[in-house]
């Protein structure tokens, strides 16, 4: 799944820290810096996926969520032929 915008982009030095707990670009008292960190933990630790950011100045930003497809093995029928 990809979520994107056409905004001003995210500078490379911020991209490197964007999923770190408590990292925020907002003024003190206006953000906890936990939102993307929590998203990252849910996608990677709980679902075994990847959460990536791609951004270029003046080109916008895309967040890419990759989740594995789990194949289940068919359960045997309890009925005998």
Summarize the structure.
20% of the residues lie in helices and 21% in strands.
Walk me through what this model shows.
This protein has 81 residues and is an alpha+beta fold. It has a single domain (2-66), classed as Heat Shock Protein 90 (2-Layer Sandwich), CATH 3.30.565. The chain is 20% helix and 21% strand. It contains two helices and three strands. It has helices at 12-15, 35-46, and strands at residues 2-4, 50-56, 60-66. Strands 1-3-2 form a three-stranded antiparallel sheet. The protein is flat. The mean pLDDT is 90.
Largest sheet properties: 3 strands, antiparallel
Please work out how many helical segments DSSP would assign: 2
User: What's the domain count?
Assistant: 1
Global geometry: flat
Query: Helix amount, in percent?
Result: 10-25%
CA radius of gyration: 19 Å
CATH superfamily: Histidine kinase-like ATPase, C-terminal domain
CATH class equals Alpha Beta
Could you name the ranges where pLDDT drops below 50 across 5 or more consecutive residues?
A: none
Q: State the CATH topology.
A: Heat Shock Protein 90
Q: In terms of structural class, how would the helical and strand content be classed?
A: alpha+beta
| Total count of strands | 3
- Strand proportion, as a percent range, falls in 15-25%
End-to-end CA span:
44 Å
């Amino acid at each position: 799944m990809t979520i994107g915008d056409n905004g001003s982009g995210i500078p490379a030095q911020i991209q490197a820290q964007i999923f770190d707990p408590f990292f925020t670009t907002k003024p003190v008292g206006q953000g906890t810096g936990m939102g993307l960190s929590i998203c990252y933990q849910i996608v990677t630790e709980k679902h075994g996926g990847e959460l990536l950011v791609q951004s270029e100045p003046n080109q916008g930003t895309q967040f890419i969520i990759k989740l594995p497809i789990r194949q289940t093995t068919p359960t045997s029928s309890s009925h005998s032929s």
